[in-house]
């Protein structure tokens, strides 16, 4: 298991020299334990400590990079079974298939369609990552030509989908510099495939018939000098995929070396709904690459969204979305409460507004998930920010009046807020428990 | 041992210089510093212009037998005065000052003997500009002249105390030759007139954690104008020199057992560690346990209810007040008792909410929901009832949850369980009757054997005095402050999760409080 901060600290030089960018050796040890810094930052660590820490802090799952340039996909380096234990590090890659025997125009238009699988999620573009070129023709020359055509149409990473070493060799002649993933080494071809991967310095997928077969094959491939691997357990039914992916991750975290690599799975169900679900399971459960045979944006969008959510760092304040919430059957005459987006704060206010039986709006201001007084103390709940929220949230269009109720704890903000926002500011009770009584008295 | 280790930041050293001869033609100043060095005083030395001008005459008039006044400043020794050894020498005197957010305490100390000759305390006049450090930072930074007003307020407070102490002993300000102040980081900034703006803004950076000494004259302090004013070294924005003092006084930095130091006040600073490592955080418990922010809350002074029992059903209440006076309000230790007792009596549930439909006449509807009457109007010193509201109880729940969550978060950072804590030192203004058993019962303190707990009172003032009387302690405190790792609780959500889990009596996870279960059985 990973070392605790204290265990790491005992191995550090304890100089508190700050050269690692941390104020003390203990702070550095805690950052190391959290995987937020690396041991190289410490210039004074002894060789002995390096060895002890290196072995303990080396990631149980190797980092594998596919592709080149800006669109390189990095997967692996994972350290946990559940995201809340720390976080999932590298979002799974989504690959889309292209058959090598398509007519050139169809091939081109399919790759273009893949290039367009980009979506705006919370202000950022999120796209599919890889093109899986499938050697359906069985012909090395056709395969190499198709791979070349794909390379010219996209800057996404490429997976060379062929078990024929000759076809892979021919394709590598076209795209080796782009660091494609070779798929796949099997019991029948692994010697040639491993040699090719080693020769061109590209990552190699290894496919076994089952887990134990895969482990044997990985050992053989590693013995031949291939280092960057991606694992395929051979499972194609979603229940078996789930079982295998879980075992791969679990054993890897127990330092079973043959499984210390990211994995690849296929979502191949002909039914689109089932296909998306088939892809969603391994997305949540440890897969490094998920291959789909579809260019329908309606199928890809939910997967991109799910991936973004699952790979979000959970070490963030517990917050609700900063927006307008409606409690009860609101009307343009309903009161408007303003509070922070700390979830505990919001749910207290929401509960007490509900208890008052007066429908109302709650406008939560983004304070990085901190409570009213904490946000006030840290300058995150300011008249400027509240005024901006009042003006930009659209609350003005929903109510006929211009009165806003602020928490009693920050009564001091009322004057400036009134001036900045043009809204009449009513100072509510200090505790949300007082909202029902407050409304009875001041909101006829 | 106090005698042998006495080596104050300011002292007089009696020395006899070898008179110059034709074969020993060292200059007067060189002769003086050489002699001081022979007596073990610390080089380098430096002296002011005025002293050098009068030195030749003073040395000869005193027949080379002089008392040299020495101040330790940042690793060097300043020669502040040279006077004939034969004169009538009283003192010199020094001051130890604890600049608390709410109260300021000072001790007048005879630097020759190390004895405290007078003690005084009062309220910090900065309270006029805000009850807590945050309001004061905001006042200082957002009001024209705010920073100056706050500096004047605290200077007047300290000067008032000094005047009182000097009057008691018939001394003059000039007799005070060194001042050591302990305070939280914000207090030190405001006292020295240093811009506190960025203390409260992310990423929470103070101007200085270890301020160099400043002349009393520059601060307008009632002391010898050349006296140095030393502020104890702090760690971070919300862990200041008062906590460094607490670490020193509790001895946790020099001992083997894993220890926890808790300052149960508004800022809720705590330190975990031992001789190998130290880690600190501030859990912002709020002023509830200092009696502030609670409807009938007050400080632990005469008339404060400091211990309470609510009998089952909530019909009868037994309490004890400080000084046995008629009750005026309730202080921190009383509030801890009350919370534990209301729960045991079945008046409030584990979430701290009043259990509805109670028959007790003490439970009644108030303006902010239900409230509980502790003392009827005919029993109190004010002629008004003393009661706690639902909002007060929620306030206390949050305060106790913050303390416990802080402890759990510190431990989690080093991967240790609660049981690993071998000693707990508690500082804070609770008076004599902090009931550890009840503090555990409400889930504020970890469920450890009672013998592991020690209450150490005002460790801040004591630490200031120790530093004043020992250059070694002063240096040690700087080394301690440098060693402490500050944990920012607003980073990550572990503290928030711990906080929410602790918002119950005693906690959502009852297995953390095994001894309470036993009591119920």
From TrEMBL, chain A:
One GO molecular function term?
methyltransferase activity
Enumerate the residues binding [4Fe-4S] cluster.
17, 20, 25, 42
Give the residues the record marks as binding 5-methoxybenzimidazolylcob(I)amide: 339, 345, 369-372, 432
Record flagged with keyword Transmembrane = no
Keywords attached to this Swiss-Prot or TrEMBL record, sorted alphabetically, are:
4Fe-4S, Cobalt, Iron, Iron-sulfur, Metal-binding
The answer on whether this UniProt entry bears the keyword ATP-binding reads no
Q: Which domain of life is it from?
A: Bacteria
The UniProt record lists the 4Fe-4S domain at 1-59
Q: Which Pfam families match?
A: CdhD, FeS
Q: What InterPro entries does the annotation carry?
A: 4Fe-4S_dom, Ac-CoA_synth_d_su_TIM-brl, ACDS_complex_subunit, AcylCoA_decarb/synth_gsu, Dihydropteroate_synth-like_sf
By its UniProt entry, which Gene3D superfamilies does this protein fall under? Answer: 3.40.50.11600, Dihydropteroate synthase-like
* Cleavable signal peptide: none
What are the BP-aspect GO terms?
A: acetyl-CoA catabolic process
The record's section on NCBIfam families has: PRK04165.1
What protein name is recorded for this chain? Answer: CO-methylating acetyl-CoA synthase corrinoid iron-sulfur protein large subunit
Recorded source organism is Thermodesulfitimonas autotrophica
Lineage of the species this protein comes from: Bacteria, Bacillati, Bacillota, Clostridia, Thermoanaerobacterales
């Amino acid at each position: 298991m990973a070392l605790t901060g204290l265990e790491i600290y005992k191995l550090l030089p304890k100089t508190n020299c700050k050269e690692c960018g941390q104020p003390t050796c203990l702070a550095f040890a805690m950052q190391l334990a959290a995987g937020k810094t690396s041991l190289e930052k410490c210039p004074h660590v002894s060789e002995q400590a390096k060895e002890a820490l290196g072995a303990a802090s080396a990631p149980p799952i190797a980092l594998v990079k596919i592709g080149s340039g800006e669109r390189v996909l990095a997967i692996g380096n994972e350290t946990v079974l559940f995201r809340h234990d720390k976080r999932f590090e590298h979002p799974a890659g989504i690959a889309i298939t292209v058959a090598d025997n398509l007519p050139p125009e169809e091939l081109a238009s399919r790759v273009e369609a893949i290039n367009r699988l980009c979506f705006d999620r919370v202000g950022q573009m999120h796209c599919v990552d890889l093109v899986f070129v499938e050697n359906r023709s069985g012909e090395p020359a056709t395969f190499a030509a198709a791979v070349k055509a794909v390379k010219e149409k996209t800057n996404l990473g490429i997976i060379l989908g062929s078990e024929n070493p000759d076809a892979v060799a021919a394709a590598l002649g076209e795209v080796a510099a782009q660091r494609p993933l070779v798929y796949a080494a099997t019991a029948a071809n692994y010697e040639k495939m491993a040699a090719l991967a080693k020769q061109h310095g590209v990552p190699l997928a290894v496919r076994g018939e089952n887990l134990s077969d895969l482990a044997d094959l990985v050992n053989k491939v590693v013995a031949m000098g291939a280092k960057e691997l991606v694992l395929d357990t051979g499972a194609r039914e979603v229940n078996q995929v789930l079982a295998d992916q879980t075992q791969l991750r679990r054993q890897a975290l127990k330092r079973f070396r043959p499984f210390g690599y990211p994995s690849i799975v296929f979502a191949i169900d002909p039914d689109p709904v089932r296909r998306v679900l088939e892809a969603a399971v391994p997305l949540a459960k440890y897969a490094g690459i998920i291959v789909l045979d579809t260019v329908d944006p309606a199928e890809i969008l939910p997967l991109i969204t799910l991936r973004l959510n699952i790979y979000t760092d959970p070490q963030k304040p517990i917050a609700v979305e900063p927006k307008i919430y409606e409690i009860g059957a609101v009307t343009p005459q309903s009161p408007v409460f303003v509070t922070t987006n700390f979830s505990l704060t919001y749910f207290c206010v929401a509960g007490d507004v509900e208890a008052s039986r007066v429908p109302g709006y709650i406008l939560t201001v983004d304070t990085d998930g901190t409570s009213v007084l904490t946000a006030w103390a840290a300058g995150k709940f300011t008249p400027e920010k509240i005024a901006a929220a009042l003006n930009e949230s659209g609350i003005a269009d929903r109510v006929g009046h211009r009165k806003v109720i602020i928490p009693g704890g920050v009564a001091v903000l009322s004057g400036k807020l009134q001036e900045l926002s043009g809204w009449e500011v009513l100072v509510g009770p200090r505790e949300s428990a007082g909202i029902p009584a407050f409304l009875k008295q001041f909101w006829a | 041992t106090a005698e042998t280790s006495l080596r104050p930041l300011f002292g007089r050293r009696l020395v006899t210089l070898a008179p110059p001869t034709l074969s020993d033609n060292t200059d007067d100043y060189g002769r003086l510093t050489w002699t001081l060095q022979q007596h073990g005083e610390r080089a380098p030395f430096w002296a002011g212009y005025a002293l050098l001008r009068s030195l030749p005459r003073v040395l000869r008039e005193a027949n080379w037998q002089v008392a040299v006044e020495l101040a330790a400043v940042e690793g060097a020794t300043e020669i502040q005065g040279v006077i004939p050894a034969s004169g009538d020498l009283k003192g010199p005197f020094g001051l130890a000052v604890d600049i608390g957010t709410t109260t300021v305490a000072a001790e007048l100390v005879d630097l020759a003997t190390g004895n405290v000759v007078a003690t005084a305390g009062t309220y910090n006049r900065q309270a006029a500009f805000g009850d807590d450090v945050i309001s004061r930072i905001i006042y200082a930074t957002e009001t024209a002249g705010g920073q100056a007003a706050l500096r004047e307020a605290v200077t007047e407070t300290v000067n008032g105390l000094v005047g009182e102490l000097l009057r008691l002993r018939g001394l003059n300000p000039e007799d005070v030759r060194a001042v050591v102040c302990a305070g939280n980081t914000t207090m030190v900034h405001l006292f020295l007139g240093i811009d506190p703006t960025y203390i409260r803004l992310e990423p929470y950076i103070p101007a200085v954690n270890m301020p160099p000494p400043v002349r009393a004259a520059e601060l307008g302090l009632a002391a010898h104008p050349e006296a140095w004013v030393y502020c104890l070294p702090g760690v971070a924005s919300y862990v200041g020199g008062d906590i460094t003092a607490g670490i020193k006084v509790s001895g946790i930095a020099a001992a083997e057992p894993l220890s926890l130091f808790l300052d149960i006040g508004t800022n809720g600073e705590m330190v975990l560690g031992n001789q190998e490592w130290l880690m600190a955080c501030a859990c912002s418990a709020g002023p509830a346990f200092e009696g502030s922010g609670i409807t009938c809350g007050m400080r632990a002074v005469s008339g404060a209810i400091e211990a309470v029992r609510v009998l089952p059903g909530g019909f009868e209440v037994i309490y004890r007040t400080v000084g046995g006076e008629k009750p005026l309000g309730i202080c921190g230790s009383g509030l801890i008792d009350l919370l534990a007792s209301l729960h045991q009596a079945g008046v409030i549930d584990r979430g701290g909410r009043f259990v509805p439909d109670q028959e007790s006449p003490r439970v009644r509807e108030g303006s902010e929901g239900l409230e509980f009457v502790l003392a009827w109007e005919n029993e109190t010193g004010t002629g008004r009832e003393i009661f706690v509201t639902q909002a007060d109880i929620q306030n206390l729940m949050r305060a106790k949850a913050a303390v416990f969550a802080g402890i759990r978060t510190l431990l989690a950072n080093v991967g240790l369980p609660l049981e690993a804590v071998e000693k707990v030192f508690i500082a804070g203004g609770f008076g004599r009757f902090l009931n550890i058993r009840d503090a555990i019962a409400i889930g504020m303190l970890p469920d450890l054997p009672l013998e592991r707990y020690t209450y150490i009172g005002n460790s801040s003032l004591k630490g200031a005095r120790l530093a004043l009387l020992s250059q070694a302690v002063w240096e040690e405190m700087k080394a301690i402050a440098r060693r402490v790792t500050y944990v920012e609780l607003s980073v990550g959500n572990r503290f928030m999760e711990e906080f929410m889990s602790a918002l119950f009596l005693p906690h959502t996870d009852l297995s953390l409080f095994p001894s309470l279960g036993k009591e119920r059985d």
